[in-house]
Amino acid sequence: MHVPTAVIRPQLVIGAQAPVPTRYGMFEMVVFRWGDAPDPETGLSPDHVALIKGDVRGQRGVTVRVHSECLTSEVFGSLKCDCREQLEAAQEEIARRGQGVVLYLRQEGRGIGLANKIRAYGLQARGHDTVDANRLLGLPDDARMYEAAAAMIAHLGIASIRLLTNNPEKIEALSKLGVQIVSRAPSIIQPNPFSAPYLDAKRRRMGHALPSEDLTESALGEAIGDAE
Ligand SMILES: Nc1nc2c(ncn2[C@@H]2O[C@H](COP(=O)(O)OP(=O)(O)OP(=O)(O)O)[C@@H](O)[C@H]2O)c(=O)[nH]1
Ligand SMILES: [Zn+2]
Predict the structure, then answer these.
(1) 168 pLDDT above the threshold of 90
(2) Which of 64, 94, 155, 168 is most buried, judging by how many CB atoms fall within 10 Å of its CB?
(3) What is the DSSP-derived secondary structure letter of residue 7?
(4) Are both 184 and 198 inside the same structural domain?
(5) 181 with 204, same domain?
(6) Residue 53 in contact with ligand 1 by CB distance below 6 A
(7) Which of 145, 68, 65 lies closest to 101, judged by CA?
(8) Is the distance from the beta carbon of residue 208 to the nearest atom of ligand 1 less than 6 Å?
(9) Hey, is 122 helix, strand or coil?
(10) CA-closest candidate to residue 121, choices 19, 60, 195
């Protein structure tokens, strides 16, 4: 689909568009700018991406993954979280369906920015979980905002979405911004020994709809078994 270069609201500028071949097939990549410049406190980029497959304008129940940037896993292969695999699974599913969109939001570290996330990782290495680490730094548990995602969905003319997420707050935030969510589909990734504590904290402390067994125990048990 062609997205004309335009300014649709004072904040949302569509900068560029091109087809990009990926290991999951061709996607149309559209870059949106939300705001003027990187945030001076967090360093977060204003340039968000819509990765589009198929014709989505005017369509109902379009599969959408609203994904937050995670440099550590997506670029460097960090095993501490499930972000990279969630992104890949979303692209794979959308490619299989022949229709859908990944909205890639530059909200590194749940919106606190890369340096703060790495500070939080430092605290996690000393035994704090992901929520307590943020709090010890005087930062919110989750600083993300979804205005840009809602504006991108509106600009792409998507009538309603099937959202790939386990996060109830994301559903609520998008709904409040006027996004019509007809259904939710889970995005469950098997934990590894390093991601298990994070997934467990997401389930216990942030209410994510993740499997309720003690992920930490089971994954660590497997890892210990592997090491023996
Ligand atoms: N502050 C902080 N951010 C993290 C940490 N681990 C991953 N992240 C960030 O968390 C964001 C992803 O959020 P999650 O809460 O894992 O998942 P979600 O997107 O809310 O939920 P789903 O839609 O179900 O995937 C990305 O921006 C990651 O960079 C961490 O330990 N601390
Ligand atoms: Zn991550």
Answers:
(1) yes
(2) 64
(3) B
(4) no
(5) no
(6) no
(7) 65
(8) yes
(9) helix
(10) 195
Residue 61 placed within a domain: yes
Residue 100 has pLDDT above 90, yes or no: yes
CA 221 to ligand 2 centroid distance, Å: 23
What pLDDT is recorded for position 101? 98
To the query of whether residue 200 is one of the catalytic residues in this protein, the response is no
Helix (H, G, I), strand (E, B) or coil at 220: helix
Residues 204 and 166 in one domain: no
User: What distance in Å separates the CA atoms of residue 185 and residue 198, rounded to the nearest whole number?
Assistant: 21
Choose, from 106, 142, 200, 203, the residue flagged as catalytic.
142
- The count of structural domains within the chain is 2
Q: Ligand 1: which of 42, 48, 68, 124 to mutate, judged by most atoms within 8 Å of the beta carbon?
A: 68
DSSP code, position 66? E
Q: Is the reported ipTM for this assembly greater than 0.90?
A: yes
Q: Amino acid identity, residue 112? A: I
Query: What are the beta bridge partners of residue 63?
Result: 162
For the whole model, what pTM was predicted?
0.91
Ligand 1 atom at shortest distance from the alpha carbon of 209 = 24
112 touches ligand 1 (CB under 6 Å): yes
Amino acid in the structure at residue 198: Y
The overall longest dimension of the chain from CA atoms, in Å, is: 59
- From first CA to last CA, the distance across the chain in angstroms is 53
